[in-house]
Each structure stands twice: as structure tokens, then as C-alpha cells.
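Table S2 (continued). Query chain:
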Amino acid sequence: MSKTSLFAAMILVGAVGAAEAGGSPGTIGVGAEYLLSGAGGASLNYDAGDFHTGGFLGFFDPGEGAPSVTEIGGRFYYHLHQTTDADFSVGGGLGIVSFEDMAGDRQTGIFVEPGVQIRVFLAANVALSASTGVVLGVSDADGVAVTGGVIGGGVGSLGAIGLSVGGGVGLHYYFF
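Corresponding output:
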């Protein structure tokens, strides 16, 4: 390689700059995320650098006269520690699930879910997230019960209300 070509290549590499790392401030991610309760769906995230926030919208219609489930919610996580490939955050989510109960009445479940989340960037702009925490759920203010399992609204199985420990997952593609 000639000295001119080598010099031109060095200028080009220097001008390009460093590649963006995962979790870059001001980026928007699209994908899917499920809260600890099981509520979730298509989601949109905004990464502000020190924290990330987002929301989701889900709809499940099993057909053949079975009741549909509509889910909407949001989440906020503050980054306690972050690297270019991952971050560890504390925060939580709020989910609202509309479903039909066993008696055929339409119910609204509300979930408050404080917890922690780890995001791992599989590529510079693709994040896989895992969350865990406590789920506090109520359904049309009929009361509160303590349960031993995760309260799931994702497939219309939200027949109970209560308090439990759960886990959630997500996958997002971030645009720089």
C-alpha cells in the first residue's frame, strides 16, 4: 500500500468516529415488551441516557366467541450502572388490562410493578431486557388477594387479583 493510500485510509477512519454504543441518549427503540404481570405487546422506548422509559399496547382476540383482552401500559427505569453493552436499572411499570371474567362481565385490572431490569445490547442498537420485581394487582376494586403465582393478563388468564413476584422480557431495536 502506498503512503498516500495509507494516509487517506487513516483520515477516513479518523473522520468516521467511534461507533454508537447501546443505550445511547436520545435514541428511540421499537419492539415488544411484557411486564411482570404478563401484560404487554408492541412497545416504544425512549432512552435518555440516565434512564429509559416507554409504553406498550397489546390486543389478544382468541376468536370463536372467546373474550378479547386489551392491554396498555408504561414503564420507567433509572440506570444505576451502565456500560456500552448493558445497563442495570431500578424502576417499574404500570399496566391496565381490560378482560372478560368467568361470569362474562368486563373487568379492568390495574398493575403496579416496582422492580429492577437488566438490558443487554446484543448489537449496538438491539437490546434484550429482563425484569423482575413485585406485582400488585387489583381488579375493579373488588378487593386484593395475595397469590403465589404470577398474575397473567396476556392470554386472558387474569382471573385473580393479588400480590406476587414475577418476571418480564423485552426486545427492542434502537434507531440512532
